[in-house]
Automatic annotation (TrEMBL):
Record protein name field: Fe2OG dioxygenase domain-containing protein
Gene Ontology annotations of biological process type: small molecule biosynthetic process
One annotated GO molecular function: oxidoreductase activity
Protein family (similarity comment): Belongs to the iron/ascorbate-dependent oxidoreductase family.
Length: 355
């Protein structure tokens, strides 16, 4: 199955809608002088302070590899359900690896009471996922399909994980430079690279079910690590909450770019300097002429296109104490958040995802 992109017209219309999120040419940080690196670090810092998101272009991961990852994702999710379940996600959220079927996960925002969570899980997210991580992670070992079920899948995903890991560490270096810290200070706090590569598939569903709230792709939430990379297909549907108005606005794919956002741990670490912005996935924009010729009843049954995305979640090493970074203190040295380890915070958030 080949990964097919949408038309140039669709891509161009998407770009024009993304002007709230800055677009930064990251090649100047990767290949430029020290002056270039400081300039790009300031641009990334400003984007995270104002919006919490930034599109990075020329980020160092070949577009061909990203396209190939989407191809593998489509192949995986096209497998029979029984085959996908040969790599099952264990119950609960403490071992976040393997395949989760439709209706298993419910993303929530700052809800930890069991009664509230149980009520929210009555309408789980209409998506399926596959998680993998660092091959050296002893706390959460990977759970793979038998090789013969999808030859080459594991090998590619392990290699793509390393590409994304390199990019995360480079962005961390840029953030450290923006704070006038030693360039490797934040990267060193992620030295174990206990990150998570996630494949997501949102199956086709009647658009009316999403608009009415009877079904959900992903509800409004913030990420809970330090940084997230997001590679999107051309379908769309991602929205972020505008930092000033509170309204949700489209954050569509940008050709050749990766969308990067701040997670809650990094917000806490920076004492609120960088925003962990709430975002969600809703019904994608309609294609031009999509409703032409449809009767009202048929329009009500109109199906949303399936959507694929590839987020890559980073968090600090488990023992890292997350407290105000130098230079991020508020007036009179005020610190907004209580110190806690990365592990303590992540475990609390993961427990809310799964029944």
């Amino acid at each position: 199955m080949a990964y097919e992109k949408s038309t140039t017209e669709a891509r161009s219309s998407s770009i024009s809608a993304s002007n709230t999120v800055p677009v930064v040419d990251f090649s100047r940080f990767l290949l430029g002088s020290d002056v270039d690196k400081r300039a790009i670090a300031r641009e990334v810092d400003e984007a995270f302070r104002k919006v919490g998101f930034v599109y990075l272009q020329n980020h160092g991961i070949q577009e061909q590899k990203v396209d190939e990852c989407f191809e593998w994702s489509q192949r995986f999710f096209a497998l029979p359900e029984g085959v996908k379940k040969l790599a099952p996600h264990p119950p609960g959220g403490s071992h976040h690896r393997g395949y989760s079927g439709l209706g298993i996960e419910k993303v929530t925002q700052n809800v930890f009471e069991q009664e509230e969570l149980a009520a929210l899980r009555q309408m789980p997210d209409f998506k399926e996922s596959f998680e993998s991580g660092n091959v050296h992670d002893q706390m959460q070992p990977n759970i793979w399909l038998p090789d013969e079920k999808l030859p080459g899948f594991r090998q590619f995903m392990e290699a793509f994980f390393l590409d994304c890991t390199d990019l995360i560490h480079t962005i961390l270096n840029a953030l450290a430079i923006s704070l006038s810290l030693p360039p490797s200070q934040l990267s060193n706090a992620h030295s174990q690279s206990l990150f998570q590569l996630r494949l997501l598939h949102y199956p086709s569903i009647p658009r009316s079910l999403l608009h009415s709230g009877e079904k959900s792709r992903i509800g409004a939430h913030s990420d809970f690590g330090t940084l997230t990379l997001l590679f999107q297909d051309d379908v769309g549907g991602l929205e972020i909450q505008h930092p000033q108005t509170g309204e949700f606005i489209a954050a569509p794919p940008v050709p050749g770019g990766v969308l990067v956002n701040i997670g809650d741990l990094m917000m806490r670490w920076s004492n609120g300097r960088w925003r962990s912005t709430v975002h969600r996935v809703v019904a994608p924009p309609e294609l031009k002429g999509e409703r032409e010729g449809l009767e009202d009843e048929e329009a009500g049954k109109e199906m949303c296109r399936p959507r694929y995305s590839i987020p890559f979640f980073a968090t600090a090493d488990p023992e890292t104490v997350i407290e105000c970074l130098p230079g991020c203190e508020g007036p009179d040295g005020k610190k907004e958040f209580e110190a806690m380890t990365a592990l303590e915070y992540v475990q609390m958030r993961m427990a809310a995802l799964y029944a």
